[in-house]
User: Fold these one by one.
Assistant:
Number 1:
Amino acid sequence: MIKEKELIKNIEKYAEPFSHTEGLQPLIENASHAKFVLLGEASHGTSEFYKIRSDITKQLIQHHQYSFIAVEGDWPSCYEINRYIKGIATEYKNGEDVLKKSFTRWPAWMWANYEMVELIEWLRNYNQTRNEEDKIGFYGVDVYSLWESIEAIVKYLKKTNSPILQKAINALECLDPFEKKPEKYGISSAFYGENCVSEIIELLHNIQNDKQRFKDDSEARLNMTINALVAKNAEHYYYTMMTNDNESWNIRDRHMVEALRHIASFYGTSTKGIVWEHNTHIGDARATDMASEGMVNVGQITREQYSEANIYAIGFGTFEGTVIAGHKWGEKPEVMVVPKGTPCSWEEALHQSSPGNKYIIFNEENRKEFSNIIGHRAIGVVYNPNFEHHGNYVPSRISERYDAFIHVDKTNALKPL
């Protein structure tokens, strides 16, 4: 109890209240010196997290020369947003249209929501004032789109009459019997030795070696490269998911960092990028119990690869409110009540210090004060509020997990299209 009182006292000392994003300027200024700013979220279905990340993103783009946004989404779907905001995709009427048509696989609401529409239209308008080579990009760095990525490769190779088209068709035909069901492919690959590894690896090598074909369209090369990378890593992911869940997580996060590296390279060695992902991905795994289970994540890997000075991770959380999620994978999403933060949790301490929104910047002066292990809430796309106290709190050393933290005391559910 004394420790909790000390924690609350330290929050009162170091936290800054805010009511609008303008109040976050000191945090944004701190973050702006990093090569990659990692913007988290405690759930995939909270409106305020999206709105605040959107506002911070605009500030970083407008005033601090950030060149792209990479999100926890599928590459093919997000690439349609990229085409739209760069003025390439004339087939879409508006931002809402591109989201509705591009995000159809569960959980579509993560990106097909009204909060994202506003940002996408802003990015499109902003890009219209920029030279072609300076336009802001939007990309998905997740690993799930095995079928969609190979279909995108086939479509492009057909369009360009590529001699390696048959390699892509071979890979797609190999996957056809699994009916776009990852679990079916995973079981077949892990337990029966029936897989498409050789076809996918051969396709990847052919794309990597076919540099001449993309000499006049570097973004097409990026698109093909990442789709091929997704295919290879997704195949490995679905195989491993059946035999080692922790290692499948590692494959996914390593893929995200690899995709991020390719995107950054496309924009130039000095480029700066913004990453949107769940707290469990952007907050350093070494500061949680994930480390004891042999798990790594984007926050840890990027700090190791680019140095801590080049990464600025901002965690997000809430004390209570509502959220969009499903009770089971694939079920219709619904608005659920987020219970008040459990006693002795990070969320409850932030609320007890003073109700209201606040942020904390961790630095040499205060980092030690927030380094004790404490439960920190994480809500996924599958959620049951009745059982959250049994598995939704991640033991964390908050000041080591993040460089800053934004607390929204009461939040509301995301609005799906």
Number 2:
Amino acid sequence: MSGTLILVRHGQSEWNLKNLFTGWRDPGLTEKGHEEAKSAGRKIKALGLKPNIAFTSVLSRANVTNDHILAELGLEGLQTIRHEALNERDYGDLSGLNKDDARAKWGEEQVHIWRRSYDVQPPGGESLKDTGARVWPYYLHTMQPHVLRGGTVLVSAHGNSLRALVMALDGLSGEEVVKMEIATGIPIVYSLNADSTVASKQILED
């Protein structure tokens, strides 16, 4: 056995609540989102896990989630590395739009393709494949080495950046990964073998 990787999607954001495409825009957490982040910290603590380094995106909803988790663990001063490689998928021209308004403008089928295809980009934005192209190298070169040295690594990020990571860890196809949902504030705990393969996976649901 090697180390542990903990993935947490940020708590509910103000734009999640309003059904808006968020992407690289930077809304804060709702009251529910703050509580989801704190709850994630308590669940991690209940397992007896103690991260020795944290990674997050440069967006505030992931940063605040990380801060809440570390506070619940009594690790407020833990080294945290912020990098845009872990940012949410960039939705381009859809960013800031209500999803129902986008359907009215471009049609239900086209918006569904943009949201749920693996390699189709929305106007001016990224596909999930594009998101993975920046997440995977960052994981392999910067995060995974800490796990393989026996560390416990906390990653507070976003639905699509984490979806790309889970795709690689679980060996999912493009068709499989777009059907997978990652809930806000629910930790996913991986134990990795020394050869970087997955030894076990646990989702800390309510």
Number 3:
Amino acid sequence: MLCEVVSSGGSSRVRNDGVDGEQVSGDMKCDVQLCESELTERALQLSHLLPPGFLPSSQSFALDAVDSLVRCGILIIVEIPRDFPICDFLKRDNALSWTTSDDMYHSDSDCDVEEMELRSYKISHPSQCPEMLFFLCRMLAGPLRALCWTTTALDLIHTPLPEAEFMAQIQSYLCDTANTKKQHYESCSQEAAHTAVRSLIDLGVISEQRQRGGVFLGVGPLFQLSENRQKLHRFISQYLYN
């Protein structure tokens, strides 16, 4: 979210010496307020990329993620008047969301909604915390990028294939992509390829078929349409930093 503020020059004020759109360095000074509704929405969207049963994709998980940033001192709570205009990037046309019918994010309680609308957060130490958050984003970028590249690879692989051959072709594509870009080699390791495929299996993008010759992997029915694979790719890539 800070990257979007920096790159778009939004209503919040961010000043930095040497912003090139992708990398932020030097002494950054921020006056950025982030609304709770958007922070929890982003956390909830990212939770859909976790394997089933690993962590709950629910309102409580999203709120705990934001509370963790408060407890460790990265964010501080700012109470704002009711008529204060809250920063809301989610209403932009290019914002992508992923929700499920059993999602508990949307509360029926008017009190919960009202309280969320009246709360926002600021970075606690502007000279240091933005760089720390960008560092955390870079740590997440490796597996997210591997997911993006693997989703793209599905356009080029004729499935179903035996599991070992499928994995080999995926890793080969990841290595070719990294070599072409001459960077991001952490996203093309055997472990990265295995994790990306496992995540896409858990999400239902890749299907497992047990046949006499062993386990075969193929593209699930919903994602056999190129349009749906592209939507998934855009959904994941919007969280990539750098």
Number 4:
Amino acid sequence: MCRCRSRQAGFSLVELITVIVVLALVAIIGTGFIVSATDSYRQTQARAALVNTARQALERMTRQIRGAMPYSVRITNSGDCVEFMPVAGGGIYREPVPDVANGAPPHTAIQTAPHSVDFGTADYLSIGAMDSGELYGGSPVSLALVNSRTTTEVTFPSRTWQRNSIGRRFFLLNQPQAFCLFGGQLRFYPAQDRTAANVDPGSDFDLLARNAQASGSPFVLSAASDSRNVLLQINVAFSEGGETMIFEQEVLIRNVP
């Protein structure tokens, strides 16, 4: 009778190590794909958030600055702010006003074609302005405080104007407003002191965006003339989730002297 020993097949140590190495390589490659896909998704989400933040901030800035009186736009705070006076209304005045050239006595009212106030409260009256320096500061030569207003008349403290408007136009303006880049924040300041040389960083503001920084000069202004519009260039970079995107926006403010 033949006695045979049964032999059980198994893995050798070399085969076992080979399998472990192969599985480790597969795991590393697979993890790399997963990490890469996750990073790509995170970057896409961060960029989308940046674009959304920038779009909302720049659209608001563009909309409000376009409603400013061209000669009221100025750069302050060492380039960190753009300040302006929104137009509340305006129209045509009927008779030439006394100015420094015609030597007529000061007056306290203008008669106008029918007009309305479409925005804000019309705090100031401006006639013949040609530069922001004629609107700001303690003694503006092309700006007066509005005492009262009807649809055909505006009254103000007695004064003589620097000049008449070329088109005999007047503007009703609101308190100065400003957009500023302070401390990594893009801010909107709704009410500023017209007599101050700079925007007060400690005054009330609306936060437009965090993690914002200047890309070169944040605000670059090409000032108006009697035959040229105002061009404001905004250069701001936004950061989110390790991603940074630079945005440039040009705002054209039509000049109607």
